[in-house]
TrEMBL record:
Domain Major facilitator superfamily (MFS) profile intervals: 1-450
TM stretches of this protein: 37-56, 68-87, 125-145, 157-176, 188-207, 213-235, 256-281, 329-347, 353-373, 394-415, 427-448
Record's protein name: MFS transporter
Keyword check for Transmembrane: yes
Subcellular location: Cell membrane
Species classification: Bacteria, Bacillati, Actinomycetota, Actinomycetes, Mycobacteriales
UniProt topology in membrane: Multi-pass membrane protein
Predominant localisation class: membrane
UniProt keyword list: Membrane, Transmembrane, Transmembrane helix, Transport
Keyword Transferase among UniProt keywords: no
Biological source species: Rhodococcus indonesiensis
Length: 451
């Protein structure tokens, strides 16, 4: 019962991230705000995730994962209730910020599994849980398509998030076993907490708002420079501090650095395929000469759902593959599948079946890769560092997804059909090429980790 319960708990992270994306234009209309303003419902969510995930992972290592997991779910539930309680953008942004703490559920779930299961069962469980989270993004899109129609109150989808948070909290309360933490004080490294929060927030803010501010504008460049400088000072502080919040070796050691870089690259590839394909199939062919004019519902059920089913199946197999062949080899194979999927959709996207097949292939890549990444870390980190190490890995994926969102948005805005603002077919092909290249580099990264 523990594995299915944790799969559901961590899946809500991805659902909460993606279910609101199709609604953003309608949210802006219903609240009477600009598209730039409504973008903060995504930015606030990612900022909270970036700041809190590694810190909550470390707290779980020290205080026990069950206690921290239940506290996070309580905060997420409060945030979900805020999203439906008032029809107001500031309250909605605040609720989405609280929901961002759900990103820490996955690394803490890894810590729970490691403490509760033996090594023989652990790899299979990690594969299933990781793959389930990877398909949660598509599940969120499908849920939005099923629940929302043009003109409906956008809060119908947020009520679903409330229900999911309640169920997840109940499951965690009754199923997740208690386990002791390391007992080390979690409040000693104050400047380490502040430096990590400020540095990561500045970099993510540049990625999230660069398209609005301008990529070479003073605010964007300022955030990048400030974030890099703060993180450099933070890293030096952590190396000298006796009890650091994040041990530098968990970032840069040869045994774990490839897993973090691969997670960043897989995050890029995953979000490229999710965004680019979802937007491609919705383009009206009579206007652009490509695309299928699909609605949000058709996109969800026809183009995404079959791939989600395949992805869930692949997730169940990924743990068995990791146990038999090792995590780095499985990641290499998954990335090779990803390269093939992106190459296929780049050249063949004139028929619906071609896109459906490509989505299925790419979901195999993402699900298996997500199952291999935590296994790569568990092989090389001590049990008392499981939460924070996987928290860092989760943040690497988040930064990859944020960069992918910015890249796809920039491509679709700049490579357009002459005389219109409609993206050219070449823009989507370029996005698929970026996904393929990042999957290829992730595979080489996994291979390098074996040297």
């Amino acid at each position: 019962m523990l594995i299915p319960a944790l799969c559901f708990v961590v899946m809500i992270t991805a659902v909460m991230q993606t279910a609101v994306v199709p609604l953003m234009p309608d949210i802006a209309t219903q609240l009477g705000v600009s598209p730039n303003a409504v973008g903060w419902i995504v930015t606030a969510n990612l900022l909270t995730a970036t700041v809190c995930t590694p810190l909550l992972g470390r707290l779980a290592d020290r205080r026990g994962p069950r206690r921290v997991l239940l506290c996070i779910l309580g905060v997420v539930l409060v945030g979900s209730l805020l999203c439906v309680a008032w029809d107001s953008l500031p309250v909605l942004v605040a609720g989405r910020a609280l929901q961002g703490m759900s990103f820490a559920l996955f690394p803490i779930g890894v810590a729970v599994l490691r403490s509760a299961l033996g090594p023989h069962r652990l790899t299979a469980a990690l594969g299933i849980m990781s793959g389930t989270m990877s398909v949660g993004g598509g599940a969120g899109m499908i849920a939005a398509g099923l629940l929302y129609r043009d003109g409906d109150d956008y809060r119908r989808v947020f009520w679903l998030l409330v229900v999911l948070a309640v169920i997840a909290t109940a499951l965690a309360w009754f199923v997740v076993p208690d386990s002791p933490g390391s007992g080390t004080s979690s409040g000693a490294d104050f400047w380490g907490v502040v430096g990590l929060a400020v540095g990561l927030s500045a970099l993510l803010l540049a990625l999230a708002q660069g398209g609005t501010w301008g990529w070479v504008s003073a605010p964007t460049i300022g955030c990048v420079v400030a974030g890099a400088l703060v993180l450099a000072v933070w890293y030096r502080h952590e190396r000298r501090f006796d009890a650091p919040m994040v041990t530098p070796a968990l970032l840069t050691a040869r045994a774990v650095a490839p897993a973090h870089l691969a997670a960043f690259l897989v995050g890029i590839a995953m979000f490229v395929q999710f965004l680019a394909i979802a937007m491609f199939v919705q383009v009206a062919p009579e206007q652009a000469g490509y695309g299928f004019g699909a609605s949000v519902l058709e996109t969800s059920l026809l183009y995404l759902l079959p791939g989600q089913v395949v992805g869930i199946t692949a997730a169940g197999v990924s743990g068995l593959l990791v146990r038999k062949f090792s995590a780095d080899r499985v990641l290499m194979a998954a990335c090779a599948v990803g390269v093939c999927g992106f190459a296929f959709v780049g050249f063949a996207h004139d028929r619906p079946w071609q896109v459906i097949v490509a989505v299925a292939v790419l979901n195999i890549f993402v699900s298996v890769a997500y199952g291999a990444l935590p296994a790569m870390l568990v092989e090389h980190v001590a049990p008392h560092d499981t939460g924070v190490a996987n928290g860092i890995n989760a943040i690497a994926r988040t930064f990859g997804s944020s960069l992918a969102s910015a890249l796809v948005g920039m491509l679709l805005a700049t490579i357009t059909i002459a005389g219109t603002d409609i993206p050219s077919e070449r823009a989507f092909v370029a996005a698929f090429a970026i996904g393929g290249v990042t999957a290829l580099i992730a595979g080489f990264t996994a291979a390098a980790s074996r040297a």
